[in-house]
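Letters spell out the chain; backbone shape is given numerically. Take this protein:
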Amino acid sequence: MSRRDTSQHGTSDVAIVGGGAAGLSLAHRLARSGTHTVTLVDAPDGPLRPPERTWCYWDRGAGDLEEAISASWSRLRVHGADGGDVTVEPEPLRYYMLRSARFERLVHSRLAEAPGARVVRATVHAVRSVAGGAEIRCSGHDGRKLTLRARRVFDSRPLTVLPPARTLLLQHFRGWFVRTAADRFDPAVADLMDFRVPQPGHGLAFGYVLPLAPDRALVEYTEFSRRPLGTAAYEAALGHYSRKILNLGEFTVQAVEQGVIPMTDARFPNHLGPGVFRIGTAGGATRPATGYTFAAVQRHSGAIAAALRKGRAAMPRPHGRRALAMDAVLLRALDTGRIDGPDFFTGLFRHTPPERLLRFLDGGTTPWEEWGIGLRTPLGPMLRTAVELPFLPRRSHGPTGIEPRHRESSR
């Protein structure tokens, strides 16, 4: 066939665009159920494929993701800006880490075993609604044009422009996978937030340490602010954190990863037309006030799979209205500087039962539990922010330049 020819492939029940956390997770759920034919459209090898990423989340068990888990921790620690720390054991929850390449291998193996499931390596150019569903216009690695049809398409490609919002911060970070000359880490404890790092003029900053062995760890520097840093600034911050605060001594950097996650109260439309839906960060899965995404993606994928099994036309949203409303208030309070970010998050871990706090950060608490947590926050600044928020206009913030990476619960 010539490069101008278009190849038609049979219609699937479901097509998923993108092989990131959201696309892989939904494909995994649907392959397990076996009730629908599934096509996962992922970018071919080359510049469009992102580098390997780290995804983390907390849950009661690894479940069907166990084969992809690289490490887990039952104890979590937060260091306050004053140097004090709090260590919690949120039993029965554990904090899990997986790497994208290992998760991709797991999902692809499940798809290979599932009848009616396939992976297509192609660059997607357009997704549009057509009679009876939707179609995906794409091209293979050799440039050959492809048209894929499905009754429903779930698109996880990142947005180049975010919807209008009242508040937009970016969670941006750079991390080193380090190996130290001597044992420097406690593999039993993960440091979620270390506020002993110098704080920026706007927003907040913290270190993040996932120990993989006594002499190996992922060490990151993270900011919540309006603009990402340059590589040199991240490297300087990581060097200061590793050498002056963690006192790692001699070490080597074995790998590097970097990313940006939107933290916004924008309204993400998840239904783009008959048969076309957005998922992942593009569909609003990222928690506005924390950047947590991966656990929400797992729950959302399960809810979508259940809706498809029941034959529903409407698809569920990743977060409830109450959780988004609370996040909008906290995000605005952080952005305006009405609350001190390091003190706020450290206080939550010091004064809230850990299992309840993690469920709260995931949007899994009851109104009564949320009321109790709210009483431990700065009431005046939070109430002032809640009162003004409905009167603030939503405005466009222009191109994001975001290449999402999801640690959960992003983190």
In short: The first helix runs from residue 21 to 33. Residues 170 and 227 are 7 Å apart (CA to CA). The first strand starts at residue 6 and ends at 8.
